[in-house]
Write a structure and sequence with these properties.
Layout: H1 2-22, E1 24-27, H2 29-39, H3 41-62, E2 67-76, E3 82-86, E4 97-101, E5 106-119, H4 121-188, H5 194-229, E6 236-239, H6 243-249, H7 266-287, E7 292-305, E8 318-328, H8 336-403, H9 408-442
Helix pairs in contact: 2-3, 2-4, 3-4, 4-5, 4-7, 4-9, 5-9, 6-9, 7-8, 8-9
């Protein structure tokens, strides 16, 4: 019995460890994007919208297919309706009337009706509209995916930026703490003024505050990334890529010379959907002036009696059936149909103008995104060189300060310049990533 308990405990422990391992996520940027496209909350609902559109398309299709309905009715006439007839029919006096009851107390009818739409212009337009509706849902899903890709990239980059900021500030703090300690010891020996110590203490306070804020921002940025990935906040998430590697991977000067095909942009496709929808609405209003034709076939039985014997084997049922064809011809609507048709025509013309506006807006947006991306690359290269120069200046001022050849003010200014150059460099890397993502979104890459 003890052995069984031990085995069960081991199995349970293994199961818990397996569950815990499943809660730890490790992603590169591309893996994070792939995960978000499947698990992001908006992506999930966008996929559901496509499925709903497919069902809607089939629902519209079934309108023109045969429809079969069965019907069973039972009626208990516990008080029969009375009428009067001349009494002389029953041997009475002329001019008098006799009350009579017509019908039976129990009636039951069972029937089946088969109907078929033969022609209806609105139905034909509806079939085309259902296809467009599906395209709209698919394009909405594509737009959602592009937005998710952009959001994930930005969030992923923000986490790397926050982490790198923490590393840089921790390194700066370590160097500054050592310099401050050495300066305090020198001051105790009377070799430097107290102002030198105070200047470094001010810088130290600023570094400590910036470091605390950077750590808080790092945690928030990571949780934001989890949210867009569709991962619960309490789960563990580790990033494979580093900021410098990701920035270098997004430097691609070749795309600056590529041609922009506006028709590949998802917003242009959605504009086309809107134009086509309005065209079909116009066609629908025109189709309402056409006649519609439908047919139906009914087959049934009925029975009746003053006693409820409907399910007895000797009960007599009477058959009836008919075939019907209905033709509906619109003739005159006091120009109501014409007014609706004109409204639909105006909406269609408006959608064509909106599509043209969308095209021109996208061309301008592409030029702007292209320019922003090119500028971000330039700033990335400039900030990298400026950081190298700021490091050299800070090192030189540090040596001079320790040797007593420069003041604490000059040294702290060099430090502040270095810290600013570090943050500018980090920001330039994230700008390259974000601007490249924005350009890819416009070109539908």
């Amino acid at each position: 019995m003890k052995h069984k308990i031990v085995i069960l405990l081991l199995l349970f422990t293994g199961f818990v460890m397996a569950q815990e391992s499943q809660e730890n996520y490790t992603f590169s940027l591309e893996e994070a994007i792939a995960h978000a496209l499947q698990n992001n909350y908006k992506a999930i609902n966008a996929s559901r919208s496509i499925e709903a559109a497919k069902k809607k398309k089939w629902e519209t299709t079934t309108i023109g297919l045969p429809q079969l309905n069965a019907n069973v009715n039972y009626q208990n006439n516990f008080v029969l309706q009375k009428s009067v007839v001349p009494a002389e029919f029953f041997g009475g006096n002329p001019g008098e009337f006799q009350e009579v009851e017509f019908g039976t107390k129990h009636n039951m009818t069972a029937s089946a009706t088969l109907s078929q739409l033969i022609f209806d212009g609105s139905y034909l337009v509806g079939l085309q509209s259902a296809k467009v509706y599906l395209q709209i849902s698919e394009n909405a899903k594509e737009k959602t995916d592009l937005e998710i890709r952009e959001v994930v990239t930005n969030a992923y980059g923000n986490v790397l930026l926050a982490n790198e900021s923490v590393k840089v500030l921790e390194n700066n703090k370590k160097i500054l703490d050592q310099t401050l300690f050495e300066t305090q010891e020198t001051y105790k020996n009377g070799l430097v003024e107290e102002e030198n110590v105070e200047q470094l203490q001010i810088t130290q306070s600023q570094i400590n505050s910036s470091l605390s804020n950077a750590k808080r921002r790092s945690e928030i940025a990571l949780n934001m990334l989890k949210l867009v990935l569709g991962i619960e906040i309490e789960k563990s998430l580790t990033l494979k890529d580093n900021l410098d590697q990701l920035a270098n991977n997004n430097v691609n000067l070749a795309i600056l010379s590529s041609e922009f095909n506006v028709q590949q942009n998802i917003d242009y496709k959605i504009g086309l959907n809107n134009q086509e929808s309005n065209r079909l609405l116009l066609k629908l209003e025109k189709s309402k002036a056409l006649p519609s034709l439908a047919a139906n076939f009914n087959f049934g039985y009925n029975t009746f009696g003053n006693e409820f014997t409907m399910f007895n084997s000797d009960q007599k049922w009477f058959n009836y059936s008919y075939l019907g064809v209905g033709l509906n011809i619109p003739i005159f609507s006091s120009l109501g149909r014409s007014a609706r048709t004109q409204q639909a025509k105006i909406a269609y013309e408006q959608s064509k103008t909106q599509l043209k506006e969308t095209e021109q807006t996208l061309l301008l947006s592409y030029q702007t995104a292209k320019n922003d991306y090119e500028y971000s690359i330039e700033q990335y290269n400039v900030s990298k060189e400026n950081l190298r120069l700021a490091e050299r200046i800070e090192n030189k001022q540090g040596v001079k300060f320790k040797e007593g050849l420069s003041s604490s003010f000059e040294y702290t200014e060099a430090q502040r310049q270095l810290y600013s150059a570090q943050q500018t460099y980090l920001q330039s890397m994230i700008d390259v990533i974000n601007k490249k993502t924005a350009l890819d979104k416009i070109t539908n890459q």
